[in-house]
Write the structure tokens for this entry.
Amino acid sequence: MAIVLRAGVALPRRRPALPRPISLAVGLGLFALLLVAAPLLAPHDPNLADILNRLAPPSWTYPLGTDALGRCLLSRLLYGARLTVSAACLVVVVAATIGTVIGLAAGYAGGWLDRLVMRLVEGVSILPALAVSLVIAGTLGLSLASVLVALTAVHWTEYARVVRNMTVVERAKPYVMAAHAIGAPGRTIVFRHLFPNVGGPLLVLGAYSLSWVILAFAGLSFLGLGVEPGTAEWGRMIAEARSHMRSYPRLVLAPGLSIMAFVVAVNLLGDALGDRWRVDQALALTPKKGRSA
């Protein structure tokens, strides 16, 4: 425990408490359940229609009932979760990779490249992201790939801005100057010294932005620009159940509550990662031995 001297009196400095693992466990648990539960828990084929049991109420055979075509609602929810979560994770990974590379290059190089990149980022950021995604997806046509490209095209700017700002701060620190002094190449400085120090906030940003991506993906699918009709996907399921919303509200509530559960899980995961990163930063700044004035 470090010692702080105040008016000649040595007082113990308390180290920051570790965050409770409840949020992290709940977030990871729900996240893993949505990803892997479909083949294990789905009682039926999600695309198998049973016209004789269309719009059937919940029962032992169909735990959440059936939709207008007699397809098992629970099975479609589980398989839709795997598609939706996988697509959202892919968008976040690709957007984070593009934004990180651009942000590192702009923050480290500075000068005209930095100004050019930041003007581009500002120009994209002032536009409504969902509207731009709608235009891009509508131009490219109805397919899953079109939605992924559209969401990635408007999502990379968040990572580029954060990474660029942190790179500018880290670039002025002594360890970077020391690396320059011993003649380390720029690529080594960027990827071996700068990137590890921006990885923590980048991971937290990715966890938080995942919830926005899932909402945007479901919104585009609801508007008819996402996956093909009949595919088990949450936004598409809500769109297909609109005509039965008054008589059979469970057809809309089931995918809607699934989206809410996913967003809650991701936010819990982001909170836990943010607390963990802040604690690590505080512990790194707290001397382990000796005295501080």
